[in-house]
């Protein structure tokens, strides 16, 4: 096969070469990272001169590769929708925009979930919120971009502050931006459920709870995640969400709120492997490499595979570890690029027996304002193990002792 890969996720993390036989297939990389370093020796590669959101430019400049492609693989959140448009344009088997949009466009996914009766925080279009603002002035709200990731562009405030910010945006005929919506903040624990589906059935899943939160990570606080026992209510809601949004195959990363009363509410989901240490801790817990399972689905053609193709994929067994695992990551993107201050004091010996691995970078390859959970772009990241309770305590201690104080209010998932 002729396989084109939109390369953004670090190669050492996703390891395309373990899923794709580079001797049997013609594999070509379109790199969004500004470099081809780290790709397999001798790999066909090009560095993209335009962002992947410029689908017309990609189609025109790389038609010689995309035209004969049998597969187009893109596993970063930022590239899922552009790749779907390119597949449609060049008749490449795989997910189309209609398949990806419910898992990428936060407004669409929330609307479809509401139509299916799935419990979730209240939300409004920007125009509706401005036209008829809620009467409860003390409640906190969030302005969310429809197509961003990693908490990029989220703003918080009370109704008056949100209305003022919406009034300053460039928007549609009503003067209100159509690329954002407003959500009511509901306090509680933020859970993320990670795994993969095959033919509509969840084959493997882990449940985790954030220590800290992703919105505060965007503003400079460390973030952790601790695996926790599955809750029947969370799993039942997960199945309803994925069915309502039409995902039947591939990896998922779904975020829920567990309210103080124990009720689960839907926040958002993504049809890809979660970032930071999700894949590493998933494999340690289950014995399954989530990236490889996700790539296996891509190689059989995604949702739209050629007529007559069976799409048979070998299913590895789940082998649960006796241990539970968690991950932590410290940000660097919030510092000015011309005056980085990313030094983190970390004593690994203090966490002996609990620390599985860690990466400590004196000068991380972070770009100012560009949120990243990648180990190379952060000053400190790692994986820990223990019981679910021990994991939370260990992660809280690492975040407290090694960096700026974590803020307690969980606002927004990754």
Describe the 3D structure.
- Helix 5 runs antiparallel to helix 6.
- The strands form 3 sheets. Strands 13-12-9-10-11-14-16-15 form an 8-stranded antiparallel sheet, with helices on both faces.
- The chain starts with a strand and ends in a 12-residue tail after the last helix.
- The chain contains 14 helices and 16 strands.
- It has 3 domains: 2-92, 3-Layer(aba) Sandwich (Rossmann fold); 122-184, Dna Ligase, domain 1 (2-Layer Sandwich), CATH 3.30.1490; 189-402, ATP-grasp fold, B domain (D-amino Acid Aminotransferase, Chain A, domain 1, 2-Layer Sandwich).
- It has helices at 11-14, 16-19, 55-61, 63-66, 80-90, 97-104, 106-115, 126-131, 159-167, 214-218, 232-245, 278-286, 290-299, 388-402; strands spanning 2-7, 26-31, 44-47, 71-73, 123-125, 141-145, 155-157, 180-184, 189-198, 201-211, 223-228, 250-258, 264-270, 324-329, 355-360, 380-386.
Would you report the number of β strands? 16
Q: What is the N-to-C order of secondary-structure elements (H for helix, E for strand)? A: EHHEEHHEHHHEHEEHEEEHEHEEHHEEEH
- The chain-level structural class is alpha+beta
CATH architecture of the largest domain, by name, is 2-Layer Sandwich
Mean pLDDT: 89
CATH class of the largest domain: Alpha Beta
- End-to-end separation in angstroms reads 34 Å
For the record, the count of structural domains works out to 3
- Pick out the low-confidence regions: 306-310, 404-414
Read across the widest sheet, the strand sequence of neighbours is 13-12-9-10-11-14-16-15
Major pleated sheet: 8 strands, antiparallel
């Amino acid at each position: 096969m002729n396989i084109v890969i939109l390369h953004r996720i670090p190669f050492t993390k996703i390891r395309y070469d373990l899923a794709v036989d580079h001797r049997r297939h013609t594999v070509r990389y379109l790199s969004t990272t500004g470099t081809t370093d780290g790709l397999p020796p001798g790999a066909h590669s090009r560095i993209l001169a335009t962002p992947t959101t410029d689908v017309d430019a990609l189609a025109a400049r790389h038609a010689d590769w995309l035209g004969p492609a049998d597969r187009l693989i893109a596993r970063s959140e930022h590239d899922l929708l552009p790749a779907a448009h390119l597949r449609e344009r060049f008749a490449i088997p795989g997910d189309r925009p209609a398949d990806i949009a419910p898992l990428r466009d936060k407004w669409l996914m929330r609307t479809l979930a509401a139509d299916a009766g799935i419990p979730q925080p209240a939300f409004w279009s920007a125009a509706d919120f401005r036209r008829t603002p809620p009467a409860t002035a003390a409640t906190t709200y969030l302005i969310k971009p429809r197509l961003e990731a990693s908490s990029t562009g989220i703003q918080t405030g009370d109704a008056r502050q949100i209305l003022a910010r919406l009034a300053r945006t460039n928007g549609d005929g009503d003067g209100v931006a159509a690329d954002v919506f407003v959500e009511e903040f509901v306090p509680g624990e933020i859970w993320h459920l990670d795994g993969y589906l095959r033919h509509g059935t969840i084959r493997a899943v882990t449940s985790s709870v954030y220590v800290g939160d992703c919105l505060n990570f965007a503003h400079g606080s460390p973030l952790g995640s601790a695996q926790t026992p599955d809750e029947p209510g969370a799993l039942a809601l997960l199945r309803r969400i994925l069915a309502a949004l039409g995902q039947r195959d591939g990896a998922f990363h779904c975020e829920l709120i567990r309210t103080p009363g124990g009720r689960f509410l839907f926040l958002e989901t993504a049809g890809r492997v979660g970032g930071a240490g999700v894949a590493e801790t998933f494999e340690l817990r289950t014995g399954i490499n989530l990236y490889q399972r996700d790539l296996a689905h891509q190689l059989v053609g995604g949702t739209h595979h050629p007529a007559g193709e069976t799409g048979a994929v070998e299913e590895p067994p789940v082998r649960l570890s006796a241990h539970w695992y968690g991950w932590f990551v410290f940000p660097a993107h919030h510092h000015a690029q011309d005056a980085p201050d990313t030094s983190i004091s970390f004593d690994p010996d203090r966490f002996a027996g609990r620390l599985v691995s860690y990466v400590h970078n004196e000068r991380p390859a972070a770009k100012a304002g560009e949120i990243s959970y990648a180990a190379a772009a952060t000053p400190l990241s790692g994986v820990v193990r223990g019981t679910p309770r021990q994991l939370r305590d260990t992660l809280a201690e690492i975040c407290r002792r090694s960096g700026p104080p974590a803020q307690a209010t969980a606002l927004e998932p990754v």
